[in-house]
Design brief:
15% of the residues lie in helices and 45% in strands. It is built from 2 helices and 8 strands, in the order ββββαβββαβ. Strand 1 and strand 2 (21-27) form a beta hairpin. It starts with 5 loop residues before the first strand and ends in an 8-residue tail after the last strand. 30% of the residues are buried.
């Protein structure tokens, strides 16, 4: 990995389940383009983790959430060249929280479409797979199936990752 130059992305993400469905966003930018991803994102300089996740859920899903507990932390190294930064990969560090839907309207309102997603939907977890979901979702599907199983602390090197065109 000596030729690897990484851009670090550090974010917080919420896992919101209801009746066998996961609340997801559809990515329109970045290495998870064209796939479902968890609502969440980068923590801004002036906010706490909780403030960030509340803001991201409001921006990306139009909903308010309630925190249940922290699930864990995972890391991913994903090939994704960023010419403007001169990097070859993204080192994505994700903190996961179990959250509950409090209120909101998930209609496909264009105001919820931001610069990196095209809105939020509830999707049956049986419809999510490695071809249509981000590695964050793939990690959380294992946790959803068995919440007593701890999240692996190893770094997932996704050297064969392909961005959906």
């Amino acid at each position: 990995m000596s030729d690897v130059k990484m851009h670090r992305n550090f974010g917080v993400y919420g896992v919101c389940m209801s009746e066998g469905k996961l609340l997801v966003i559809k990515k329109t930018l970045g290495p998870y383009y064209g796939r479902y991803d968890l609502p969440g994102g980068n923590i801004e300089l002036d906010e706490t983790i909780f403030d960030c996740l509340h803001r991201e859920y409001a921006e990306e899903t139009g909903s308010e959430i309630q925190f249940v507990n922290q699930i864990g932390v995972s890391e991913y190294i994903v090939p994704y060249p960023l010419q403007k930064r001169g990097t070859t990969h993204i080192h994505h560090i994700a903190i996961f929280y179990d959250v509950k839907f409090k209120s909101g309207n998930l209609d496909s309102d264009s105001t919820l479409k931001n610069n990196d997603s095209s809105g939020a939907v509830w999707i049956n977890i049986n419809e999510l797979n490695e071809n249509n979901a981000s590695p964050l979702i793939q990690t959380m599907l294992n946790w959803i199936k068995d919440p007593s199983r701890p999240i692996s602390v190893s770094v997932q090197n996704l050297s064969n990752w392909k961005v959906n065109a």
